[in-house]
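Quick one: MFS transporter from Streptomyces erythrochromogenes, structure tokens please.
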Amino acid sequence: MYATPPHRHSATATLAALAAAQFAVTLSTSIVNVALPAVRDGVGLSDAGMSWVVNAYGLAFGALLLLGGRAADLLGRRRLLTAGLALFAAAAVAAGLASAPWMLVTARTVQGVGAAAIAPAALSLVMRLHPPGPARARALGVWGAVSGAGGAAGVLLGGVLTEGPGWPWVFHASGIGAAVVLAVTLRLVPADPKEADGPRPRLDAAGSLTVTTGLVALVYGLTAAGRSGWTDPLVLGSFAAAAVLLSLFALVERRHPAPLLPSRLLARGAAGPANLVMALLGAVWVGLFFFLPLYQQQVLGAGPLEAGLSQLPLAAANMLGSGLAPVLARRIGPHRTLLTGLATQAAGFLWLARIPADGTFLVHLLGPVLLVGVGLGVAFVQLTGSAVSGVEPADAGLAGGLVNTTRQIGGAVGLAVLGTLAAARTAAAPPDLAHTAALTEGYRSAFLLSAAVLLLGAALTPLLSRRTRPVREIVPAPPPLTPPCPTHRTR
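--- reply ---
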């Protein structure tokens, strides 16, 4: 059953409100990246504490996405979206007012909780308000373009605010923006439909607890591994706890009458293989937004504002790719469209793997960045469409939460591996090699591995194609709801 916006409001305005909600979440994942040194000095953070300004948000966001998706289905999507926006806005303002490290990290954690409610609820509302067909394809194309642009816009805005009014406004801007979106959402987005008579399914409390704590342990272990090493006792203990908790989650789900992650969600359509490839693409997306600004600032000597401005071509290319995805899917089919996006990205990363220590943006970065941006837009739109197509309306929120959970966890795993590789390659450089040249060697290795990951994803796409054949309606959908969230910093 699909709802339509109230007559007094246009469908375009309603879609704009939902896209703005997603943009707020996307922006907040990257807006702090270039502001971290200023945040460290302003609040008195240590180098390790500085990484937790990002990690706290990512841990809460990634671990609670599944719960947020199911809560949207059971409690009401608009209701959860507005509650998430309110919590998100309050926590962002509190982060900007923080005067001690614990206050800032706590506020960022609460902000991540709000984001985990916003992301799946907003996507499922887009699916509910736009029935299958050209209308949904257009809506999700717009959604994908806005989502992809948010990451680059965050880096740009972060640089402008850090060099202008100061680092607190990096957080205040997110809070004010979310508050405006909340007011618009209350006015434009239609209320949740009335519930049918009969018993109401209960939230799977045991499944929610085990999967949330298990994912927290996993992401924490991956985060700590990049800083302390893969054999550190705390890292190994976190991985062991994650294995136990996620195994318990699987047992609970098999016995619960209304499981948090029903098996039908992965068994139907292309959800299973699509989420697997999404995890690989999430790793690549996170690595791009993490290593590219580092190369520009630590090797090329760019300032925060210059590094932010250089994200504009990437954002434009991503928006172009998101707009091209539905067109390509109609002309050459979804399978070839996805392969085209993956191949274009791989070519861009192979180009980035040749960056020199004395490079320039126009000569050595602009070309590959445009290729990667277009490829990411095409691939994420088509891939997410495959992950949510064929899903029952009652599971729309959960499907949105799942595809973002796999992206978030894939990003954490990918960045831990890429960061470790880059750090090891830099450390292994000859002693007489300049520090900037050694750093460049590490970044080049990370980009080369990213290209290999994309080729692995391309090799897995036949699985997705076979699974999607029985499904009648394949609609391109947006890229991951939240762009990359770096989990540690390579020195």
